[in-house]
Specification:
5 helices; OPA3-like; elongated; OPA3-domain-containing protein; mainly alpha; coiled coil
């Protein structure tokens, strides 16, 4: 819709009058008060008439009502169907994005809750094992005090017998097996 349709004709006429007055004032200001020849007077009058005509044509062009071509029924149905189908597609796509975002957030929070639950269970189990260990230490010390001698040292567990596969970083290369062979080979070369 053109903005010319929303304008008031009275406002347009006032604007035309204002522009004419400004043009006339500008023309009078630029003139030097001297006597003009007849040719100069005709040229000034024709220029003023041309300015008035241009301004009024400009205003008439803005004041014309625009004829809007009617839309055929088939074109209207096609446009409406396209709008509805595109709206449906965008709504479905937006819904899927929101659903997937919600689902991934829920999955992550469930995973975090599961990890937190497992940590709590392990901490509780660790605490009960510590209390059992303290209780067993008390039982052992009470048995030792009753018998008056200490019990034999416990046998090492299989976990203690297994050596780590990677050497410790704080050990020097001399402590590692095979390091002596390498140093001997390099010295003999």
């Amino acid at each position: 819709m053109r903005l010319g349709l929303l304008q008031d004709p009275a406002v347009i006429e006032r604007q035309i009058a204002k522009e004419l007055a400004e043009a006339e004032a500008k023309r009078k200001k630029s003139q030097i008060p001297t006597v003009k020849t007849e040719a100069q007077m005709k040229a000034d009058e024709s220029a003023a008439a041309r300015e008035k005509r241009e301004i009024s044509e400009k205003a008439k062009g803005a004041n014309k009502s625009v004829r809007i071509r009617p839309l055929s029924e088939s074109k209207a149905i096609e446009t409406g169907a396209n709008f509805i189908s595109e709206t449906f597609l965008f709504l479905v796509a937006g819904g899927l994005i929101i659903f997937e975002n919600f689902r991934s957030r829920r999955k992550e929070s469930n995973r975090r809750e599961g990890v937190a639950d497992r940590i709590e269970a392990l901490e509780a189990e660790n605490a009960t094992l510590k209390t059992h260990l303290v209780h067993l230490d008390k039982v052992i010390s009470s048995l030792e005090s009753k018998q008056g001698k200490s019990l034999p040292e416990p046998q090492p567990t299989p976990k203690d017998l297994i050596k780590p596969l990677k050497p410790d970083a704080n050990k020097s290369s001399k402590d590692q097996p095979g390091a002596e062979d390498k140093s001997k080979n390099s010295a003999s070369s």
